[in-house]
Amino acid sequence: MSLPLHHTDPEGISDPDLAAARSGSVFALLGHLGVLQFSGEDAESFLQGQLSCDVANVGLRSSTYGAYCSPKGRMLANFLLWRGEAGFFMALSRDIVAAVQKNISRFVLRSKVKISDASSDIVLVGAAGPRVDGALRDVFPDLPTEPNEVCRQPGMGAVMKLRDGRFVLATEGSSAPALRQRLAGSLQPVDARAWRWLDIRSGLPLVTAATQDQFVPQMANFELLGGVSFDKGCYTGQEIVARAQHLGKVKRRMFLANVAAAAAAGDELYSEDLGDQASGMVVNSEASPDGGHDLLAVVQTASRDSSAVHLKSRGGPVLRFLPLPYAIA
Asked: Does pTM top 0.85 for this prediction?
């Protein structure tokens, strides 16, 4: 996936990984993500009652985004979920894997479900760029062509096509070296931060330890990304999430922005219309090939529309908002 960006800073693309991710065909080991595995005969029904996505609709050839929420409807995690022969797999921020495993395990009770940390067993790889289809087809002859589709290749694992045209590969650790070697023949290896920058430019948030329990899914545009089902039955936090949807316009939304300073997830944002009251929070941030940091920020929509928004303080650097690749209702 090549992202059209306007180059403004001659020093901005000195980082070769960011430069490659911006216009080339790349792959990255996604070490910032961990994997939880849910197995057992009740895994589907258990997850259906815990997650915002329609788990029952996830087959062996499909995947979905989803959220795990608190009873107050705030996201404790968001993730990519897919089904395998051994159960369901959830890719989420590695720094919250243990906390999510502990929290969700409290609800197992008599259900026949085993929840295990598979982060050391499954290696996740991201691939993107104009040559990615051809490169992956050499490894996965049955390559997904539709968003959320999943295909498998014996000995290499699963490959999932994301909504923005990128791919995520899930392979067993023993197969990872061979997979990396085959991909390196056609794709340039880059650091995971370059992949995280692609996530930001695609408007795809990742809940981390710094932002757990801060946003209902709609604040992070997660229902627009297919991460929330409003037709399935109850799940933890469902009443709050549904109410936010049915009330109409959400007061806070996630926007794409650039700021001429370093920013980090969890940094608070301030706007002139709200004075000393924080008007938002940084969800994710990475260095930009155009200079400064690109970030996803949840902000009061009124502040975004009518006021300057500042990083960390009322006198902090001003956010320059950029268009997201999808429309916000």
From this structure: yes
CATH placement of domain 251-329:
2.40.30.110
For the domain 14-247, what is the CATH code? Answer: 3.30.1360.120
| 23's tokens | 């216009």
pLDDT higher than threshold 60 for residue 14: no
Portions of the chain given CATH number 2.40.30.110: 251-329
β-strands 75-84, 278-287 pairing:
unpaired
Q: Residues 185, 190, 193, CA angle at the centre, nearest 5°?
A: 160
CA 47, 50, 54: angle at the middle one, nearest 5? 60
Number of C-beta neighbours around residue 226 at 10 A: 15
Longest Cα pair distance anywhere in the chain, in angstroms? 60
Calculate the CA 87 to chain-centre distance: 21
By CB atoms closer than 10 A (0-12, 13-18, 19+), residue 4 is exposed
Distance CA 3, CA 90 (A): 27
pLDDT of residue 3: 35
Q: Is 140 helix (H, G, I), strand (E, B) or coil?
A: coil
